[in-house]
Prior knowledge:
The complex is a heterodimer of chains A (419) and B (255). Chain A is an alpha/beta fold and 419 residues long. Chain A contains 15 helices and 14 strands. In chain A, the strands form 4 sheets. In chain A, strands 3-4-14-9-10-13 form a 6-stranded mixed sheet, sandwiched between helices. A 4-stranded parallel sheet of chain A has the order 7-6-5-8, sandwiched between helices. Chain B has one domain: Alpha-Beta Barrel (TIM Barrel), CATH 3.20.20. Chain B has 11 helices and 9 strands.
Amino acid sequence: MDIFDFSDGREGYYGEYGGVFLPEILHATIEELLVCFRECKADPKFWQDYVSLLQNYSGRPTPITHLENLSRQLGGAQIYVKRDDLNHTGSHKINNVMGQGLLCQRLGKRRVIAETGAGQHGFATATMAAKFGYDCKIYMGAVDIARQRPNVFWMENLGAEVASVEDGQKTLKDAVNACMRDWVTNMADTHYILGTACGPHPFPEMVSWFQSIIGMEAREQILKQAGKLPDRVYACVGGGSNAMGIFQGFFDDDSVELIGCEAGGLGVGSYMHSARLAYDDATVGVAQGYKTYFLQNDEGNMNETHSVAAGLDYIGINPIFSYLWEQGKVRFEAATDSEVKEALKLTMRTEGLIPALESTHAFVMAIKEAPTMAKNEVILINQSGRGDKDIFTIADALDDSKWKSFIAGKADQYRAEKK
Amino acid sequence: MGLQAYIEERKKDRDLLVMAHVVCGYPSFEDNMQELEIMAEAGVDLVELQFPFSEPSADGPLFVKANEQSLKSGTTVDQCFDFMKRASERFPFKILMMGYYNTAFKMGEEVFVNRIKASGGVGYILPDLPVEESSNLHKLSEQAGIEPIILMTPTSSDKRLAILGKASRGMVYVVARKGVTGSKTNMGDDVISLVERCRQHTDVPMGVGFGISCKADMDFLRGTADLAIVGTAALKTWESSGAEGLRVFFAELMA
C-alpha cells in the first residue's frame, strides 16, 4: 500500500482529506518546498545521510523492550515497547527535525521557525538549529510556556528565540497561526519546520516519511525478538506523526491491527478533550492549511480542546489518518486523563519505564486490551517520548505533595536571593 | 450592474476609488454601522465585511484581536449576513464578504454564494482558498451572479499570474507586500511594477491593499491602481479616536 502515490488521484489528497489551503503569497514557497522534497525523497543518498545523522547524533536505532512483568501481571498478550523515548531530546520529534534540517540545507535557507505545544518539538528544533547553524525562532502559546518552563529554558539556552503567542487559546494551534504569519513575511530566507504530520501538502507526507524510520526499525526488531509480527500496534495521536511513523512499518501486513490512541481528556460528552476520531464531536473542515476532521462548531470556528498531555492538545488530526480511519485501516480509541495517570503509575512500578504523558495514552489502550488477548499474541506500543523531563507536569498530574513542598522551598530560596 | 462595471462607472468621476473594511461584530454591530455611515459619507466605493474566524492566519495583530473579540462576544454567521443585508439596503457602496474558507465550507458552497447574493453582497474574498480549490465555488458564483475576488502577490510568477488572471472576475486584490495585514508598506517602484505585471494577465480593475494608511499612499497609487484598499489603519483610528477621528481619517484620505 502506497498512500503517497498520487498518480490516480489529486496530489496531496488522501481520499477527501489533505490538500493545500494557504494564502496565495505562499504558493511559490510551498511549490519550492515540494520540488525540493521530491528530489530528496528520490535520492537514496539523502536517506543514507539522514539515517547516519540520527545514528550518530540521536542514538538510533532505538531498541525494543519486552515488558515481561507487565505482560505477566495482565495475563494476556506479550507487550513490547519501541523506545523512541531514548532519542536525544527525549522523543521521536528529533527524527522529523533532523530530516527537515538536512532538507533546509538543500533549500539554502538560513533561518528556521517552528510551533511547539509541549515544547518537545521546539526543543528538538532548537537543538538542530544549533547543530546546523540556523537562526531559530520558536512560537509557543503563552499557556504552554507557563506549563512547560523547562523546555523553554533549554530552547533559550540552545540559542533559539522563544516567542510567546498571546492570541486565541494561547496554545498549539495559535502557535501554528503565528508561524504562518512569520512565514508569509519571511519566506525568502526562512523554512517552517512543522512538527507533525498536519498542515498543507507536502508536510503530512514529508513528516510521515521522516518518521517512517520508527516503523522500519520496529518491524525488523519485533520479528527478531518476538519471532513474529505484532498482532496489534498502539501509538498515541495528537497530530499523528509518531503513530504514522510506527504504523507505516506494518501497512502491508494485513494481520496487524493498528490502533491510534487520542486524548480523551475529561471523557465522552465533556467537550474537554482532543479526540477527533474516537469520539463523535469532530467534523470535516478546512483550517491551518489543510482539510481534515476538526473539533469545531457548526459555523467552522474551532472549539476549545483539552488534554493532560500538551502534545496531544490539538484541534485537528493528520489527513492521512482521517482517510485510513474511514477505510477501516486504523482503529481509533481515546484514553482519559485519569486513565493516563493510572497507566503511568503502573508502568513505572512494574517496568521502571517513564513514558511521556502523551505516549502513556497508548499504554492505556494496550493495558486495557492485553488481558483479552492470548498469551502467544504480541502487542507493540510506541513509547514516543520520555516522561522524566516532564517532571513538573507529571508531578502535577499525580498531585505529589512532596514535590510541591520542594518547589515551594526552592521558590523561597530564589525569593531570598532576590532580596 | 456587475462589480467591474460599477468600478468603471465610479472611475469616470474619480481616478482612485477606495475599498474599506470592517470586522463584523467588533467592537459591536452598532459600532460597525456607525463606521459604515462615516465611510458612506466620505464616499467610500466598496466595503469588505469580514466574517470572524477562530484561526485568522493571514491577518495581523489588530484584526486577529478583532476576530477573537467578535467571536467571544457571540457573533454568528446569521448575524453577519443580516448585517450585510441591512448595510446593502442602506448605503450606496457595494459590499463584499471577506473571511476564511472554512466559513463557506461549513455552510456549503452553494448556500454560501446564495446567502451573499440574498444579503445584497456582490462578491467575496477568501484569502486561504487557492484557485486550484475554487472551481466549484467559482462556477456557483457565476450562476448566482457574484464575483470571487482573486489575490495577486509579489511572489506570484508570471506563469502563476496567468492562471490567476484567467480566474479573476470583478476586480483583483493586489497584495502590495509580503506579510500579514496591518503593517506599513513602503510604497515604491516595486508596487508599481507589480500592478503593471498583474495587468498583463487580466482586464479587471486592480485594487491595491496591505499597509495603505494615509493620503501619501493614495497619491502614490493614483494612476497605478483603480482602488486603494484600507483596512487596519481605519480600525486603528476608530479605536484611538472614535467616530470623529474616523470622519477626519477618511476626509483626509479621500481629499
